Amino acid sequence: METKSAVASLAALAHEGRLAAFRLLVQAGSDGLAAGELARRLDMLPNTLSANLNILSHAGLITSQRDGRSIVYRAQYDAMRDLLGFLVEDCCGGSPEICAPLMKVASPCC
Amino acid sequence: METKSAVASLAALAHEGRLAAFRLLVQAGSDGLAAGELARRLDMLPNTLSANLNILSHAGLITSQRDGRSIVYRAQYDAMRDLLGFLVEDCCGGSPEICAPLMKVASPCC
DNA sequence: TCCATATTTCCAGCATAATCGAAATATGTA
DNA sequence: TACATATTTCGATTATGCTGGAAATATGGA
């Protein structure tokens, strides 16, 4: 992953509303969530949310797909993994004892 | 980790110069790097770098310690782990097959 | 066709962030 | 003390990002 792409992803996530939206999508899994449902849960104006989803989408962190009148958004887990990997790349100056805890960012489902 | 703190960390990293500085510190390990050394490697003006290191520091991602005339900066690996954990929290809607690759953000030293 | 729902696009105003030069502070040395 | 090095702070300018209202687009149903 190149620096530019990482900065775009981080900038997209560095916003309270967008971060909340992204995390909801991450938690939603492969079903994703419709824009309206996200707006309701996050209590955001539809146009503001749309602009923010657009930013996440351009950063490659989410995808969108029309389903009837709704547009369903989904997290792009690959992009997320690339981003996390970029941050820890060549980490710790060769000290596994520092590095090991970083690898334990486990989630209940794993 | 609360949302505010995560946003501050992500905003701190969402900048080409700061991201590069942080990654150098992550790679430097426990020795850290002096501000001047960072400025040289990153080809940044000392005052600009100082402002950026201050932002990373306030976000809790790095620490500073005076050593003679220099000030040595070090990555805060705990803060980094918290941030990564926050992003993947309750992920994947209970689908380990989606989630598993996320846990493989391994680094050579681990 | 007409209307309601779902979402996006456009626009303008406001707030925040980035950068640089210059000056200030702190440390070490002759 | 006087000076060089290392780094930070200050101040001003410029650029960028965020928000909300209004209008536009797209879909589905009566």
Describe the structure concisely for a colleague.
2 copies of one chain form a homodimer. With 110 residues, chain A is of the alpha+beta class.
Give structural notes.
The structure is a homodimer of 110-residue chains. The first copy, chain A, has 110 residues and is an alpha+beta fold. Chain A has one domain (3-104): Arc Repressor Mutant, subunit A. In chain A, 55% of the residues lie in helices and 13% in strands. Chain A has helices at residues 3-13, 16-28, 35-42, 46-58, 77-87, 96-99, and strands spanning 33-34, 62-67, 70-75. In chain A, strands 1-3-2 form a three-stranded antiparallel beta sheet. In chain A, a hairpin with a 2-residue loop joins strand 2 and strand 3 (70-75). The model of chain A has no long low-confidence stretch (mean pLDDT 92). Chains A and B meet through helix 1, helix 2, helix 5 and helix 6 of A and helix 1, helix 2, helix 5 and helix 6 of B.
Spell out the blueprint of helices and strands.
The structure is a homodimer of 110-residue chains.
Chain A: H1 3-13, H2 16-28, E1 33-34, H3 35-42, H4 46-58, E2 62-67, E3 70-75, H5 77-87, H6 96-99
Antiparallel strand pairs in A: 1-3, 2-3
The structure holds a DNA duplex (30 and 30 nucleotides).
